[in-house]
Structure formats: C-alpha cells, structure tokens
Amino acid sequence: MIEFLGYGAAVLMGAVLGLIGGGGSILTVPILVYLFGIPPVLATAYSLFIVGLTSIFGILPYLRAGQVQVKTGILFSIPAMTGVFVARKFVVPVLPDKLLSLGTFILTKDMALMGLFAVMMVAASFSMIRSRPAAEPTTETDKKQTSALTKTLMIAVEGLVVGLLTGLVGAGGGFLVIPVLVIFAGLEMKAAVATSLLVISVKSLVGFLGDLGVQPMDWLFLGGFSVFTIVGALLGGWASKYVPSDKLKPAFGWFVLLMGMFILLNTGLSSGH
User: Fold this and answer.
1) 3-class DSSP state of 138
2) 260-267: long-range contacts (C-beta < 8 A, 24 or more apart)?
3) DSSP element (H, E) containing 108
4) How distant, in Å, are the alpha carbons of 201, 207, 250 from that of 21?
5) Is residue 167 within 8 Å of 25, Cβ to Cβ?
6) Measured distance CA(181)–CA(59) in Å, rounded
7) How would you class 14 by CB atoms within 10 Å of its CB: exposed for 0-12, middle for 13-18, buried for 19 or more?
8) Of 55, 93, 144, 165, which has fewest CB within 10 angstroms of its CB?
C-alpha cells in the first residue's frame, strides 16, 4: 500500500517539476526515504538520476515553445556541474558516519544531510511564498548598470554554489536556479523555468556520475520510478500552458515549508535515540 502511495507521489513530483521548473528533489528525497525506506545518502544519489532524467522530458514542451535560453543555461551549468561532481565524488564519500557526539546526542551523516536538506526546503519555501517582487525582470536601466562581465561572473559563482549544494543533498536546486536566472540573467519567468530544467538535467546527471561505483544502484527500481516521474513531468509541461506558475508557487511554498518542518522535527526526534 505504501509503495502505491510512493508511485502516486512520484507522478506528483514529476508534475511539479514540469510545471514550475523546481521542487523535484525536494519531493523525491522524502518520498524515497519515508515511503520506500531508502537510506538518505543513497536517496540523494537516486534523486540526482531521477530528477535529471525527468527534467529532460519536462523540458520538451518548453523547447517547442522556444522558451529555453540555451546559452545562459550552459553558462550556469558548467560551474554547477563542477560543484556537484566534486561534492558527490570527493566530499560525501569521506564524511564519517558519526559527525558529532555530545553525551547521548550523536549527529550522524544521514541526520546531517536530511537536516541540511530540510533547512534548504524551509529557505526555498520563503523565497517561493514571497517571490513576486523578486520575480520581475530587470529594467533597461538596471541592465546597463550591471556590466556583461559582472553578470557573467555572478551567474557562474551562483552556479558553483548551487552545484555544491546539489551534490551535498541531492537536490536539483530549481528553486535556487530560477531566482538567479531572473535577477542576474534578466530572463522572463517562463524562460527561467524552462532554462532551469535544462540546468537541473545537466548538473544532476553529471553529479550522479560521481556516485557510480560508490553507491549501490538498483537500476530496476530507478527505471520503474522514473517512468512515473516522467509521466508526471509531461503532464506538468502540458498543464503549464493553462496554469500560471506564479499562482501555484505560493501555495506550493507553504507545502514545502510544512514538509521541511516535518523532516526537521523527525530528524530531531531520531537524534534522541
């Protein structure tokens, strides 16, 4: 019964990713951990593959509409790929299972990753709930004040930071990518969503390569789960023509906030054992 719920949630995750260009990993990791019982570190690796593959299919409706800014996406993706690969290949494997021990309290690697993931969720939820002022494209005056070189450097640095975070917690980072593309690259919201899917697909799949040979992969499960998320992504991409994503974002932001608080609470309770 729980597995049926998990696969239904997989379709929902794909639909959200295809509709608003983010939220895939924020949903995927908890689904894998809490509904399928997959260890958090392995779940972050699975998430990279699932979200990366799903984003490729989710981007198709936006490609047909000509809304994907490939040049900007590549500029963001190169440093992001570097960050995520380094984090997955060199940082995560060397983290000890027990990071901190204070009396009866023991902070494990799994707890730390889930805690960091939950904090990211809470932070992302606030940016979504009150995203409208920041989501406006820059004016011509603002564009002139920001030189092309400065803009390029800002996008590259943000790409590296998001890539490192992606590698550590297995999150695609769509809710971090989109504000950068809107504010620093001056993209319209729909174009930012479309380009975010391009960035997420590239850096998530490249980051997943860092896990090959390090984490055990159940390819049958990954393939089956991805089928459901891809179906959801295609549905979300189709619905994006009719549902304004700006209306959906605040509501989903509250959902992400509640889920993040739940994971923080659950992680805190588990630390007591």
Assistant:
1) coil
2) 260/118, 260/119, 260/120, 260/121, 260/122, 260/125, 261/118, 261/122, 263/30, 263/114, 263/115, 263/117, 263/118, 263/121, 264/115, 264/118, 264/119, 264/122, 266/114, 267/111, 267/114, 267/115, 267/118
3) strand 105-108
4) 11, 19, 14
5) no
6) 16
7) buried
8) 144
